[in-house]
Amino acid sequence: MPEGNELHRHANLQSDWFTGRILTVDAPNGRFAEGAALLSRRKLRAIEAYGKHLFYDFGPNRQLHVHLGLYGKYRSGEMPFPEPRGILRLRISDKAHWLELRGPTACDVLSDQQRATLLARIGPDPLSPDAEPKVAITRIRKSRAPIGALLMDQSVISGIGNIYRAELLFRAKLHPLTPGKTITVAKLLKLWSDAQTLMKAGMVDRRIVTTKPSDRPHPTGRARRFETHYVYRRKGLPCFVCGSEVAMKEFIGRKLYWCPCCQPEPTPPESQDRSAPVASR
DNA sequence: GTGGGATGGGCAA
DNA sequence: TGCCCCTCCCACA
Prior knowledge:
The protein is an alpha+beta fold and about 280 residues long. Helices cover about 30% and strands about 20% of the residues. Helix 4 (about 135-140) crosses helix 7 (about 185-200) and helix 6 crosses helix 7.
């Protein structure tokens, strides 16, 4: 679940219940015991999402930082506490509500300085209202790296995961191996605004839906299960737009999906180099 | 019922 | 490069 949109949703829902309240924080499995002791019985000032990171502000130098990673899960509800289940890293509660966290990649207490350092390291987040797309676009335009790698690099742009990478590139008709520096600013601005649109739409019926109704085999009504994505997890299946078989390959440890026909191979650099001197004469 | 894969990312080596 | 985290979901039996 956790691509950036889900993290923003968690931040908003949890804020409604917990912001401004004095909370009990504990660590049922003991692994976060020291951190929990630093936070418990303090007032939570704010919960904010930046990319895939969540920050809970419990006052100066008491910044709870959570990153769900691949397995992390939240569960929440109204008091009383639910039946114990699984291994519980963190639990936050007041008299009315509880929140449980299992299996996160990160759950730690940061100083204000550490929090600032972390935030300085990550690129703009399309879901943050004050995010500056130029920062990401400049980085992409300076890089020979493939756009498929740059979109997943949280220091370039934050909040995009494997599903949105695949679907954004399809919708932009960009091959994932296109070098960043060969993509026009106009095209990157469109990619940014499409990221905002898709990620704001977020989950529909607990699914990420990226297909336009007119491109679906069943254009009316709710998207069927098999028609929520153009290419993500559709290896070998016909493209909804052109009918070609969707391609897949392993790339930097993750699976990359694209349509070879709608997203043609980038022009090889040799032919550009050859034409450049001629054009300048 | 079971087992493999996945929406990440940090860290040791 | 591979391991960790140790969840949820789905395809398959």
